[in-house]
Design a protein that fits this description.
With 77 residues, the protein is mainly α. 74% of the residues lie in helices and 0% in strands. It has 4 helices and no strands.
């Protein structure tokens, strides 16, 4: 009887671990592969920002001049 309880607990723990690992790989794959809907929203974001926040245009232009617009989130050594 005691052996059976231990086996059930081990199986439940392994099942939960497998679900957690599988779910994390699924979420990583989901978040790192943008679909067409996300890409279309991203393409429309600059006109929306310029329309609603006109003060951003000089800031974005200055970032593009020094080629920093693509390196905002990366760390340079």
């Amino acid at each position: 009887m005691r052996k059976r309880i231990i086996y059930v607990i081990i199986i439940v723990v392994l099942l939960l671990t497998g679900c957690t690992i599988g779910g994390s790989f699924y979420m990583l794959n989901f978040s790192l592969t943008p679909d067409a809907k996300i890409l279309s929203k991203d393409a429309d974001s600059y006109p929306y920002m310029y329309r609603n926040y006109p003060f951003l245009r000089p800031w974005v232009d200055s970032l593009k001049q020094v080629d920093a617009a693509s390196c905002i989130l990366c760390c340079r050594p």
